[in-house]
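Researcher: We plan to redesign the surface later, but first we want a full-length starting point. Tokens attached.
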């Protein structure tokens, strides 16, 4: 808050306050009041002229401030000449007044800085104790010392003169200068509205109290403080300054005319002061009253104003923050809807491409050239699906966990299946070493774990040209640890700090060998963190790298094993409004020895379930007439045993909230399109296990 040693304000500062002519007029008025008080009552209550000149020095730019100081010095010099002061004091008093203003101005700028609005109590105190008091003490000491030698003052009279001069001029600086500074920046207090009626009422109360107290000789001087404290707490500092000035004018005039508690105070007899009037010797009590009032009311008013300003700023910032939060939530909702729509629309055609490519790859009557082309289609579809899922992973952010029971070994094998095939196609050895608990069933977020494992395995296969990729998994208690190691070329040490930053790539040149968007590792780390674990770089060297994934997964009791025997073929109901999807699912189901029945929408599915028995329902979500969610609810509400039929959601709605909606509607599992043999069979197995868990819960 402290500033520099300077006399005039910085030219770049914002100008505030009245015109220079106003300061000169106020200064002249203060001189006239001083001369009138001295000639009429032989006493001067206060010397506000220096306070006006100091306010002008602090507020006005350099040229205008210098002009005002020069004019005020000239007016003061003329007034002392007209008053008939002794030759040394004709020029000494104006000079000391100018020195007092300059010293106080320099100290004020040094202690209070460039902000001179006096809205903070600390600035008021620093101005009073650090600027006004030293300046007044300096000039009062010089003036009394000169008078001591010139007029042959005694020690008693010199001490009384110094005390009177010090209190009178300090009172003028302490009340007038802060008041003018506050009034000059009154616009800064407009952020808190005040009722005009309240302002008038409080100012009226202060004036009436001052008139009543100083119109009698009773010792009720202390009763002036309650209305001043009320004004300090309720009014802004500019109005508080006006209240103080009104109090000073009323009390000063009444005291000079011989009214009030000060005039009634006893005057001790001091021989060295017998030539002074009683009123002059009573002034120290009055000065003490005004100084205490000013040093109490102004800081309290500034403190309350600062509190009001803080509350107003806090309210504005709270409103702004709430509005920004509302906009962010709206934008997040729009983003979620966009991601859900794009995911659905991209997965729907991918389902046909990948699914039929998978069907064609299982035919043995295709020529080698056709088999190569089908393999290329499968690889391109898988790459496209991987890219879609990676982008969606980065865009979705940290969403709540979706806990469900699943077979840990089956999930890990399913997550690495595509990468295992890619590794063997590159001539790499792909090793899976699982040390899991008996049964292998856990409770966790299958989507996040599958994504994290897939990202780590994909990177390992991508950056390894020879050797092997090894997956080692162990599950002890509720702690899962998966280490993915490769025999690639390792990583550059300079890139390791940026390893988990989104879209960061060790080689982003035009000649890079490996593709990718740079989102795999950040997504895997975020998934692991949501599951109470982490992904870290275990080691890296030219011989390869090791990434370690940890997660918290609750171990579940294994389901009782079924007694093997001859079973009838399963009957599955395929519900989808796209003929291409129904035909593809039928072919995949029939390849496993199942019988398939088709329904074109949810309404037809409910009708078929009511009239026939099925072992499994493959349910799409977005369908005309009746969607898959409502169809599932109606099936679960059937009074027959058909309500317990296992239902697998097979849909292009792949967002976590989509899976949660499916499970909430009564489905047993969720499979996001596109569909392949491996993913479909794994999802069907998971569906039967979830249905068995549901039946056990109902039975309990």
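Model: Full-length starting sequence:
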């Amino acid at each position: 808050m402290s500033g520099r040693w300077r006399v005039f304000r910085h030219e770049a500062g914002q100008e505030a306050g009245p015109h220079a002519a106003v300061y000169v007029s106020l200064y002249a008025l203060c001189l006239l009041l001083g001369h009138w008080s001295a000639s009429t009552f032989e006493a001067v209550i206060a010397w506000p002229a220096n306070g006006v000149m100091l306010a002008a020095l602090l507020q006005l730019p350099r040229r205008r401030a210098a002009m005002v100081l020069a004019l005020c010095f000239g007016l003061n010099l003329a007034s002392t000449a007209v008053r008939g002061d002794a030759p040394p004091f004709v020029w000494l008093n104006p000079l000391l007044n100018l020195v007092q203003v300059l010293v106080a101005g320099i100290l004020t700028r040094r202690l209070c800085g460039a902000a001179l609005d006096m809205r903070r109590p600390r600035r008021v105190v620093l101005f009073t104790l650090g600027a006004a008091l030293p300046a007044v003490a300096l000039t009062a000491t010089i003036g009394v010392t000169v008078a001591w030698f010139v007029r042959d003052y005694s020690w008693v009279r010199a001490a009384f003169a110094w005390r009177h001069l010090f209190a009178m001029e300090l009172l003028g600086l302490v009340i007038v200068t802060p008041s003018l500074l506050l009034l000059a920046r009154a616009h800064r207090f407009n952020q808190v509205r005040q009722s005009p009626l309240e302002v008038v009422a409080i100012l009226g109360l202060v004036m009436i109290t001052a008139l009543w107290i100083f119109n009698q000789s009773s010792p009720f001087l202390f009763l002036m403080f309650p209305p001043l404290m009320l004004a300090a707490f309720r009014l802004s500092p500019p109005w508080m300054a006006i209240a103080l000035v009104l109090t000073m004018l009323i009390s000063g005039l009444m005291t000079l005319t011989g009214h009030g508690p000060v005039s009634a105070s006893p005057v001790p007899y001091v021989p060295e002061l017998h030539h002074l009037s009683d009123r002059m010797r009573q002034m120290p009590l009055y000065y003490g009253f005004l100084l205490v009032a000013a040093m109490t009311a102004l800081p309290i008013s500034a403190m309350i104003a600062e509190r009001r300003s803080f509350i107003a700023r806090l309210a504005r910032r709270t409103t702004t923050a709430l509005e920004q939060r509302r906009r962010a939530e709206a934008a997040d909702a729009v983003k979620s809807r966009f991601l859900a729509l794009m995911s659905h629309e991209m997965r729907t055609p991918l389902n046909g491409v990948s699914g039929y490519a998978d069907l064609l790859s299982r035919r043995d009557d295709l020529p080698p050239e056709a088999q190569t082309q089908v393999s290329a289609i499968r690889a391109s579809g898988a790459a496209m699906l991987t890219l879609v899922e990676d982008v969606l992973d980065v865009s979705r952010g940290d969403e709540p966990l979706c806990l469900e029971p699943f077979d840990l070994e089956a999930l890990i094998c399913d997550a690495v299946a595509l990468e295992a095939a890619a590794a063997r196609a590159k001539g790499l050895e792909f090793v899976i070493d699982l040390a899991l608990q008996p049964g292998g069933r856990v409770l966790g977020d299958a989507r996040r774990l599958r994504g994290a494992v897939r990202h780590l395995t994909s990177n390992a296969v991508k950056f390894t040209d020879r050797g092997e990729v090894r997956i080692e998994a162990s599950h002890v208690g509720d702690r899962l640890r998966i280490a993915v190691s490769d025999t690639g070329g390792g990583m550059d040490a300079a890139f390791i700090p940026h390893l988990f930053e989104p879209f960061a790539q060790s080689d982003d040149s035009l000649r890079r060998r490996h593709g990718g968007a740079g989102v795999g590792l950040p997504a895997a780390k975020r998934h692991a963190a949501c599951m109470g674990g982490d992904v870290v770089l275990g080691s890296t060297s030219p011989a390869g790298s090791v990434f370690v994934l940890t997660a918290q997964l609750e171990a579940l009791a294994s389901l009782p094993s079924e007694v093997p025997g001859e079973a009838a073929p399963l009957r599955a109901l395929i519900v989808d409004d796209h003929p291409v999807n129904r035909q593809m699912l039928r072919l995949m189901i029939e390849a496993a020895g199942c019988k398939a029945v088709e329904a074109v929408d949810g309404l037809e599915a409910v009708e078929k379930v009511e009239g026939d028995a099925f072992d499994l329902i493959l349910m799409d979500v977005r369908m005309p007439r009746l969607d898959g969610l409502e169809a599932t609810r109606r099936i679960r509400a059937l009074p027959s045993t058909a309500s317990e039929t296992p239902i697998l959601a097979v849909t292009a709605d792949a967002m976590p909230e989509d899976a949660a909606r499916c499970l909430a509607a009564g489905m047993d599992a969720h499979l996001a399109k596109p569909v392949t043999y491996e993913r479909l069979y794994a999802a069907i197995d998971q569906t039967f296990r979830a249905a068995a868990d549901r039946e056990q819960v109902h039975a309990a």
